[in-house]
Amino acid sequence: MRRPSLDQTIEFVKSLDAARTQEEICARVLAVTRDFGVEHILAGTIPQRGALSQTQKSNILLDRWPRDWAIRYFSRNYILSDPAIRKLPDGRAFRWSELDAMTRDNPRARLVMNEATEFGLRSGITIPLLPIENEVIGFSLAGRHLEMGPHEESMLLMLASYATGRALVLRDNEREMPAPFTVKEKDVLRYVASGLARSEIAQRMNVTDKAVDWHLRNIRDKMGVSTTTFAVAEAIRLGIIV
What is d(CA 97, CA 99) in angstroms, rounded to the nearest whole number? Predict the structure, then answer.
């Protein structure tokens, strides 16, 4: 998965925007990630501790997970022992192999991970996201064997953010149009959507890195989101970036 062009990014986000169900969103994500071994997708907010099984299920935004494993997971309340859930607040993407240290002295956590392999969930990556309502969302992609390097992982962060943004729109009511953007803010949005880093944007616009950060902060405030990736996805969806 190489760095996407602006056209490719817009095409992907528009394909998500055309999705009318979570199943369609999952299908579009799988179409992009299947070559890396991804077979299953799950995204959802973290339920409050002690929440009933049905309440836990209502926190799910995207669900292309093995059905029998989901039934077992929720019926046995495995969410309380799942090491991936416990690691989400760290705020960075992680491969499931990193969870081994958390299960060595926790038989229940080790049981959860071992039983997941029975359903084809042997290799995975989980990406924490912080959307509009400041709820932590875990976006997981898994399969029997994932093959991807650090660059592919960075692309997955963008993909997961866009897909989650669309899922949130389907879940919630449409938000009002944001305040108008300046020409420079639109330029910054286009550069970010093209995959450029902050320093690259600053060089192209002949401004400082701090100026780029200032524009990005204003953009996030106008969009009412907490991450730049969500802001770009919303800008494309609303036609602000064309």
Answer: 5
- Pair 87, 99: CB distance under 8 Å: yes
The C-alpha atoms of residue 47 and residue 55 are separated, in whole angstroms, by: 7
Q: How far is CA 127 from the centre of its chain?
A: 6
Residue-wise pLDDT for 112-128, tens only, equals 999 999 999 999 999 99
CA distances from 45 to 85, 133, 134, 136, 171 (A): 10, 11, 10, 6, 12
Token pair 């290799």: residue? 123
Query: How much helix, strand and coil, in percent to the nearest 5, is found in the chain?
Result: 55, 10, 30
Over the stretch 6-23, which tens digit does the pLDDT of each residue have? 566 677 778 888 888 889
Determine the 3-state secondary structure of 81 from DSSP: coil
3-state SS track over 139-165: EEEEECCCCCCHHHHHHHHHHHHHHHH
Q: Tokens 């616009």 sit at which residue?
A: 205
Is the model's pTM score more than 0.70?
A: no
Amino acid identity of residue 35, one-letter, is D
Is pLDDT larger for residue 41 or for residue 16? 41
Whole-number Å distance between alpha carbons of 196 and 181: 20
